[in-house]
Design brief:
heterodimer; A: 215 residues; mainly alpha; Methane Monooxygenase Hydroxylase, Chain G, domain 1; 7 helices; B: 287 residues; 2% strand; elongated
């Protein structure tokens, strides 16, 4: 038994010593970065991972390079992920504008507590509604580019939209004393809060409607 | 800034109409708001309000129940996929065919019995909306399927291939359940962990070359994944997996180093009973 094991290891070692490129790197385990080592595998892009040197240890002549189908698949993934990343950036850009229009509305609505007449307060806030309408249209256009993936990006505009809706509800109540309904909110923002678009008017299962008492 | 202004609004007396998932709440809440309304304006269209909220509550309840069922199915997928993985780990030169045959059958069973439940619940919609409910199960399935494929052929199971195998589960008139890119990559990252465990197991069984082949494969995957991780939505899970992956590659390389280099130093003293031998505790190998 012992000799069998010994033979096995002698065999492996002798195979190893026939390797035409004996190098310490073959056997030293990779535990720190070796920044200046050339990579055996030439790639289009510089590879800065610490694994760079371990890649050199593929000294066997019969070891295949990364299979082309593997590379092709991952290249496809990279393109898809980059596209979705840039879509997300465009969404965020529109959402930031929505956020700033919302802040303007909110600031003007605060005047209601300083006993300013309601129509005056509402006028300023109402002017933002058209801005928001345009912005939501822009958002809809971007989202239309990725059909079926509405909910993938939903989180990027969900909380901002909740704020918009709560402000609209407040304004509606100030004007009419009624609760803003789903369909009315849709009309105000000019966007389709419909199932085909997938917009869920009740995001996340908890939606806070604040009805304000005004003295 | 938004937070501070909303906090300011909250300081004023407020009556909240909080919509909960419970359909019982609405009558309770509505009556509270009515009683606290002491101003000339009253809430009109009261019954339509009730109806609207009632339908919201119904929708939410239905959605949550659907989500629950999906989570249950996902857990079963996870459990059974793990069983497949454990089985494949028992592979060795002697029992290869037998193990692979059983694993293939069991993977098919996961598909037919459990993933089909996901398909049934999702009914061709809301794949992204409910993704968090079934993502763990799908990741585990990807891990099991790719692990099996590697042990069988030494190659990586493509996303297209794995999705093709799921197509028959879906009704042709509906959008089929397809594994999305993110879940595939997450499953792949877990695969590398299993592969490294296999590699170390192979070393102790004396199959050093096979172990090296596994390691090369894992390095390839790691290399490809480093380009993708920064681009992924919610990349934080993936980043942890990448760190683990690198650690396990290093661990395996250390094991191989021990076998190769220190093995030569200690060969005259080889024997699993020698306390200084790195083979202490390793089962004897019949060659």
């Amino acid at each position: 038994m012992k000799s069998a094991l010994r033979n096995a290891y002698y065999f492996t070692l002798s195979r190893y010593s026939l390797n035409p490129n004996p190098s310490l790197l073959h056997i030293v385990p990779f535990i720190s970065t070796f920044p200046s080592l050339p990579s055996v595998l030439s790639r289009n892009h510089p590879f800065r991972s610490p694994l760079c040197a371990t890649l050199m240890t593929g000294g066997d002549s019969d070891s295949p390079q990364t299979s082309p189908s593997l590379e092709k698949q991952f290249e496809k993934f990279r393109v898809q992920l980059e596209d979705s990343g840039s879509l997300r950036e465009r969404i965020r850009a529109v959402v930031l504008e929505i956020e700033s229009a919302t802040r303007l509305m909110q600031a003007s609505l605060l005047l209601v507590h300083q006993s300013k007449p309601i129509p005056e307060v509402l006028q300023k806030a109402n002017s933002q509604i058209n801005v928001l309408k345009d912005l939501y249209n822009k958002l809809a256009e971007v989202v239309r580019e990725c059909p079926g993936q509405y909910y993938r990006y939903h989180g990027d505009w969900r909380s901002e939209t909740q704020m918009v809706v709560s402000l609209l509800a407040f304004m509606h109540w100030l004007e009419t004393g009624n609760l803003l309904m789903h369909t009315e909110a849709e009309e105000k923002l000019g966007c389709m809060f419909r199932e085909q678009f997938g917009f869920c008017f009740r995001p996340g299962g908890l939606s806070c409607w604040c009805l304000f008492h005004v003295k | 800034m938004l937070c501070s202004s909303s906090a300011a609004i909250k300081r004023i007396s407020v009556s909240w109409l909080i919509m909960a998932n419970n359909s019982n709440f609405k009558s309770h809440r509505l009556s509270r708001s009515e009683s606290s309304t002491k101003r000339p304006r009253t809430m009109s269209t009261h019954s339509s309000l009730k109806d609207a909220f009632s339908s919201y509550a119904d929708n939410l309840n239905a959605l949550n129940e659907k989500r629950e069922r999906i989570v249950k199915a996902s857990r079963d997928v996870t459990m059974n996929s793990k069983k497949v993985i454990f089985q494949v780990h028992r592979i060795s030169k002697a029992n290869r065919e037998e193990v692979l045959e059983k694993a293939e059958k069991d993977l098919a069973a996961v598909r037919d019995q459990h993933i089909s439940r996901l398909v049934k619940e999702l009914q061709g919609t809301d794949f992204w909306k409910l993704r968090r409910a079934y993502s763990p199960g799908v990741q585990e399935y990807v891990e099991a399927a790719t692990f099996f494929k590697f042990c069988q052929t030494g190659t990586l199971l493509n996303l297209d291939e794995i999705n093709a195998s799921l197509l028959p589960l879906s009704d042709p008139s509906l959008e089929p359940l397809q594994i999305n890119l993110l879940d595939y990559l997450l499953g792949l990252a877990d695969l590398t962990g299993e592969l490294m465990r296999l590699a170390i197991g192979r070393i102790s069984d004396g199959e050093v070359e096979y172990s090296e082949r596994i390691c090369r494969f894992v390095r390839d995957i790691y290399r490809e994944l480093t380009l993708l991780v920064p681009l992924m939505d919610d990349g934080s899970d993936m980043k942890t997996k990448m760190d683990t992956m690198l650690q396990s590659v290093v661990k395996r390389e250390n094991a191989c180093f021990s076998v190769r280099v220190r093995g030569s130093e200690y060969i005259p003293l080889l024997g699993s009973s020698d306390p200084s031998s790195f083979l202490v505790g390793v089962s004897d190998v019949e060659l």
